[in-house]
Amino acid sequence: MQLVCPAGNLPALQAAVDAGADAVYAGFRDETNARAFPGLNFDHAALREGIAYAHKRGARVYLALNTYPDSARLPQWQAAVDRAAEFGCDAIIAAEAAVLAHALRHHPQLPRHLSVQGSATTAPALRYYHERFGIARAVLPRVLSIQQVERLCESAPVPLETFAFGSLCIMVEGRCQLSSYVTGASPNRHGVCSPAKFVRWDEQDDGSREVRLNDVLIDRFEPAEPAGYPTVCKGRFDVGGEIFHALEEPTSLNTLSLLPRLARAGVVALKIEGRQRGVAYVGSVTRTWRAALDRYSADPERWQSQPEWESALSAHAEGHQTTLGAYHRAWH
């Protein structure tokens, strides 16, 4: 299985490649990708340099163009596809039909991967994208059980990629309205969940901190309590007089224990989430999964997850806890 790792900037790309990534995925410094945070992503010169670095070491570079433009902004996405082909990207990761159509029409030699933002969770949906836009791979949303993934691998017309580690999304990707409800800016159209310009931190007299998103109180942290970036889904809310994580607790997906099952199912690539994370995260998580995949490749019958792998991954998990998420659903 291919190990696909995040690259939010050039140092992260280099760290991922050096740690054993088979491929990295990156985005331009604009709203054409779903991690359009200030200071993140690549300008043209940096992406060219990153592609050269990766290719020299046998790794691939995929360009994320996974947001949804409106008709007025579509030329910006089309130009980004053109740049991906010009710079030598190994594939684009896209969700919007017009973006995929432009790539097919003007750059048929450039592989097209259906983004997780495309929300394709059934074989007929995957077949449609394959027949209409010639996709070479599809990334599955993180809402499917392992049984559903296995059945899709049997019936899908294209190879499938699944998320292996990183931040969870409780929505079917591409269909979240929480951020746009609070801020008016959609992560699917403007490239970021909880845009930084709407975030405000207020330190209180007792040392606690309140974080607001467009003046909506999302969470309150005690003086020594770790605080993550505020998103609506991971906020704490007053529900019936009780304050708790009403939608989702801060935790990270970790499917390491499912690696043999995913391999037997025929999953072709494992994706690490985290283009917004730093070099230390990218390097450590990539090395851990590289070791696990190499061990499995060498001896699949006797493969077992190692305590040091789980410890390394937990250290980088949100809330320092991990979950199998929807991969394990007792009620499925």
Percent of residues in β-strands: 15-25%
CATH architecture descriptor of the largest domain: Alpha-Beta Barrel
The number of distinct helices, counting runs of at least 4 residues, comes to 11
Domain count = 2
Tell me the CATH topology of the largest domain: TIM Barrel
Specify the overall morphology.
globular
Strand order of the largest sheet: 1-2-3-4-5-6-7-14
The chain-level mean pLDDT equals 93
Number of strand elements:
15
Order of helices and strands: EHEHEHEHEHEHEHHEEEEEEHEHHE
CATH class of the largest domain: Alpha Beta
Describe the structure.
With 332 residues, the chain is α/β, with parallel strands linked by helices. It folds into two domains: 2-168 and 251-327, Aldolase class I (TIM Barrel); 178-244, no CATH class. Helix content is 34%, strand content 19%. The chain has helices at residues 10-18, 44-56, 74-87, 97-106, 123-133, 146-155, 178-183, 187-190, 259-265, 279-298, 307-315; strands at residues 2-6, 23-26, 60-65, 91-94, 112-114, 137-139, 160-167, 199-203, 209-213, 216-221, 237-239, 242-244, 252-254, 269-272, 322-323. The strands form three sheets. It has an eight-stranded parallel β-barrel, surrounded by six helices. A three-stranded antiparallel beta sheet has the order 8-9-10, with no helix packed on it. The longest helix has 20 residues, at 279-298. The radius of gyration is 20 Å and the shape is globular. The two termini are 26 Å apart. The mean pLDDT is 93.
